[in-house]
Structure formats: C-alpha cells, structure tokens
Amino acid sequence: MRSGPPFAWQGHFPHDAGLRVSDKDDSIEISLDVPGIKKQDLKVTIDDEKILEISGVRFVTSPEGEKGKEESFSQTFSLAKEKFDESKMKANLSNGVLVVTIPKEAKPATAVLEISITESPVEKESDEPVEESKAPAGGSKEA
Which residues pair with residue 53 across a beta bridge? Predict the structure, then answer.
C-alpha cells in the first residue's frame, strides 16, 4: 500500500471549488468543480519539472445581476514522485466539473531470468596410492 499521495500540491482555489483527487491503478484523476466557468477561461499546463498547473478566471456577479469583479484561481501539483505519461494527459470540462486524467506509465512486468548452470568436470580419483612423505616428523637427523 502506498503512503501519501503520489504528488504534492499548493495554491488557492475559491472556497466553493470542490477538489477531488483519485489515485487509481493506471492513472491519477483530479476533479475540480468550476460551475459557470467556460472552457476558454480555464488553462491546464505541465512543465519540464513535472509541475501541473490548473488555473482559471471566473467573473463574480452581484445579486442584482451586474457583472462584478474577476476572480482568478490556480492550483499546482508536483508529479515528481511517480512516472506519468504526460503525452496522454487529458482534461475534460462537463457540467461544471473539470476532470484532468494523468495516466501512469506502465510498470514493466517483473521478468524471471533463468541463470544457466555450468558444470565443471569431476576430478577423477587415481587408482595409484598416494605416496606419503618419508621425512621424519621431527625433521631430518644427521648421522
């Protein structure tokens, strides 16, 4: 089991923006509630250091219907902890929910490598008796 998320994030979103992160077997999915925000007001980027940024602008209207101030938001995610396939990332905006899908790189299957066994020739025992040393145990004596 993995401890902690596979990335770190920082930034600020409006207090009413729901942010959900799902760590699936084959991808990370980041969902963000962005009701009323149009596609052209959102931006999703990733840089060379694997920093993903989701940013956008929304316009707050007054209760009387007058166009109010522009409110920008951004959130960054560092994806350096895991290997992701950035080329296959997708972002989809549907019914006020932005979903960014970040596919994980397939982990190579653990291959079983068979190691060959070599056999050395067996030393054949000789039929001839082995000569023992004829020297006295205490050394040589002179006569």
Answer: 45, 76
Query: pTM, whole model, 2 decimals?
Result: 0.61
With beta carbons less than 8 A apart as the criterion, state whether 6 and 78 touch: no
Rounded distance between C-alpha atoms, residue 52 and residue 89, angstroms: 11
- Work out whether the CA dihedral 33, 54, 20, 22 comes out positive or negative: positive
Residue with tokens 């895991």: 82
Whether 73 contacts 59, CB under 8 Å = no
Dihedral over Cα of 23, 24, 26, 30: its sign? negative
% of the chain beyond a pLDDT of 70: 69
- Written as six digits, the tokens of 122 are 């067996």
Instruction: Give the number of C-alpha atoms closer than 13 A to the C-alpha of residue 117, restricted to the C-beta side.
Output: 1
CB-based contacts of 79: which residues, under 8 Å, 6+ apart? 6, 7, 28, 46, 50, 51, 52, 102
